[in-house]
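Kindly review these tokens for lecture notes.

. . .
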Amino acid sequence: MSRPGGTRSRRGRGQTLAEFAMVVPLILLLLLGAVDLGRAVFAYNTLSQAARAGARTAIVNQDLTAVRAKAIAAAATLGLGASNVDVCFKTSTTTQTGCASATVDNCPIATRQIGCMAFVTTRLTYQPMTPFVGLLFGSINLASTSVAPIEFVCPASATGSCP
């Protein structure tokens, strides 16, 4: 409330301060939650890009080490390791969507041919940085799989000269 002289009373200033003190934590929570959501989207997009980069390598060079290295390099900001990248090759008629069972519908190197499918899966456990969001959701497991048909089969005798 204003006094007739145009100055606010002490009571009015105290009320404003109390309201501000109640609203600021909510605003900060929303702001930091939005930042955490942005970080999670960035991590998932980077993870997807890493799986696609690995699959692009796998379609012309079926060396598992080279495919994993390409996927890890594409997600350098996430700190992926070889244990976070799965690579497998399946027949084109497979019903599987990942590398969980490498022995079913696989396309072994001895019989690998153009048309077999290269599966590259990248995984990451995302940790929110906001403590309250972390308590609500905990860690979030992110994964992305990219599938592409093999376009060139690298001969076993030419391991060092494949693209």
About this structure: The helical segments are 10-58, 64-74, 131-137. The chain is about 40% helix and 15% strand. Strands lie at 85-90, 117-126, 140-149.
